[in-house]
Design a protein that fits this description.
With 142 residues, this protein is of the alpha+beta class. Helix content is 20%, strand content 40%. It has one domain. This is MAIP1 protein.
């Protein structure tokens, strides 16, 4: 899901995210993506083969005021991306660079991070669909 959604974000195809991402998050993304330079938008895309590491950041089970049961999982992703980013991104945070190949054919990639929160209702009879309720690409999508 992370790879698919990140690629759609980078291509600015938000209409294809209606069933995957909450309406509130989509509204915020529409505003932020319209202000992003092309190289930052390119850096949002995470090819599934370029995901280096994933970990869960937080897992919560909670009930709303109507007694419905929900599960929320915050996932953190580290992925390689070849977008043309400066060595220093806004905010004074260093972007790691990894060089593949020898000096004549080297290919520069950045190791980037993203946080996606997935939520699902587990009340009896609810649809078994997961929805993304938070999308963060630090220093790219702020």
């Amino acid at each position: 899901a992370f790879s698919v959604v990140s690629k759609l974000l980078s291509q600015h195809k938000l209409d294809l995210l209606d069933e995957l991402v909450s309406a509130e998050v989509l509204q915020v993304l529409k505003e932020k993506l319209s202000l992003l330079p092309d190289n930052h938008r390119d850096a949002l895309a995470a090819d599934i083969d370029a995901i280096m590491y994933t970990t869960e950041g937080d897992v919560r089970i909670y009930y709303d005021d109507d007694g419905r049961k929900f599960v929320s999982i915050l996932m953190r992703f580290w992925y390689l991306n070849g977008a043309n980013l400066p060595d220093e991104v806004p905010g004074e945070t260093k972007v790691f660079q990894i060089v593949f190949g020898d000096e004549s054919t080297k290919e520069k990639r950045h190791l980037l991070t993203a946080n996606y929160e997935f939520q699902r209702e587990f009340t009896e009879g609810a649809k078994p669909d997961w929805t993304i309720t938070r999308i963060e690409h630090p220093k790219l999508l702020e």
